[in-house]
Amino acid sequence: MFVPCEQCPLRRKPLFRPFSEVELKFVSEMKTDHIVVAPRVDIIQEDEIGGPAYTLFEGWAIRYHRLPKGSRQILDIVLPGDMIGIASALLGTVRHSVQALTPVTLCVLSGRTMTDLFGGQPGLAFNIMQTRVEEEQRADVRLSLLGRSNAEQRIGYLMLETFDRLRQRGMVNGGSTCPFPLQRRDIADAAGISRVHVARTLDRLREQKLATIQDGVLVLLDRARLIDLAGYVPLRAAVGRRAIV
């Protein structure tokens, strides 16, 4: 499957900025392939040298760091429209791994370099950097709060943030439900707690009628109370519509 950039359905979503004809032609020249990756397969690996950048077209992935004793810390969830491997394109290597969480399809961006992008399309390049800074700020807020939170607060925050990011993309199924394919081991590695602790915490959130996960679907039973419990900071409106390459 190869989806031409001109026909990309992600570009029609309100979250993403429209392109000029010149920008769209340039991005079309960047895209060289459209590939499928199976669940639990690494898309990029930590300390990998070189390699293309990607845009996640469909599916979910996780960005993670493998710790010295073999445990894993999930740094973020990668959703459709997010770029992967931009550090490799800019710095020559990456300091994290990215793994497919579900079956994913990826746009491979290797036809033009980032140097070409910054030199030929400075407006688009600036918007990409702006998007990356906004993502960094989102991660900073979450990590600063998670470092001082208990298990219920950590998992509640993860649920709320993921729900809001999906809602920005038009991927929320109704007012209070959304896909949530993370398994307990993924939630544990994202929240920094054990799998047993995850199971107990999910039970408590369900018993308190705050949130529940059933068959890969997250249901926010009482969003207002969950926000209060988790100390959740709602996602700020973006400075401008996000770049998608």
Shape by Cα distribution: globular
Oligomerization state: single chain
Q: Within the largest sheet, what's the order of strands?
A: 1-8-3-6
Count the beta strands: 11
Number of domains: 2
**Mean residue pLDDT:** 89
Helix content: 25-40%
- Figure out the total of helices: 8
* Low-pLDDT residue spans: none
Query: Order of SSEs, N→C?
Result: HEEEEEEHEEHHHEHHEEH
Radius of gyration: 18 Å
What is the name of the CATH class of the largest domain? Mainly Beta
By CATH, the superfamily of the largest domain comes out as Jelly Rolls
Termini Cα gap: 18 Å
Q: Estimate what percentage of residues fall within beta strands.
A: 15-25%
* Class inferred from helices and paired strands: alpha+beta
CATH topology of the largest domain: Jelly Rolls
Main beta sheet: 4 strands, antiparallel
Assign the CATH architecture of the largest domain.
Sandwich
